[in-house]
Amino acid sequence: MTKQKKAKxxxxxxxxxxxxxxxxxxxxxxxENKLEENIKQLEGEVAELKDKLLRKAAEFxxxxxxxxxxxxxxxxxxxxxxxxxxxxxIDDFERSLEHVDEAQDINAIKQGLKLIYDKLMKVLDEQGxxxxxxxxxxxxxxxxxxxxxxxxxSVEPHTVLNEIxxxxxxxxxxxxxxxxxxxxxxxxxxxx
Length: 192
Fold this sequence. Notes:
This protein is of the alpha+beta class. It folds into 3 domains: 1-77; 79-127; 129-185, Head domain of nucleotide exchange factor GrpE (Nucleotide Exchange Factor Grpe, Chain A, domain 2). Helix content is 60%, strand content 15%. The protein has helices spanning 3-76, 80-99, 106-126; strands at residues 129-131, 144-150, 160-165, 168-170, 173-176, 178-183. The strands form 2 sheets. It has a 3-stranded antiparallel β-sheet with strand order 1-4-5. Helix 2 runs antiparallel to helix 3 (106-126). The longest helix has 74 residues, at 3-76.
């Protein structure tokens, strides 16, 4: 080979190597550009998701605050409908008290009080408050509180004889036990 041919081949090899290196650089640059685009796209998605997360967290906090306020209001004003139903009974008592001094007939006063009492008991009944019927029934610790025992041969032992204080249930829950006097067991000792 001649010197010129060798020089040409050397130049061609250098050009090929240079072209090969620039091709690899271009491929590498393209990969880097794509990676940068992907990174930017992913960063955008992350920012969008963070924004959505913050909005959802804020919405949840607002919901929680509203729910707490609703519960507080519910507890605070739960008795309002019941109180509104009691107000007419109070009005009746006040009207009766205004006329009690002028009343000549004691029976009229008794009848008025009985009407007001019945109206009050009706309001309580509508709300689920019921009297515990005790007298004549067997003693039941779930509904009665025995204050004392008394012998009585006319009834079975452990029967409620008298009611000192009425008991009440509210929707099947005892809110006040009836305070009662109960018949005691007959003694088995012979009398002398």
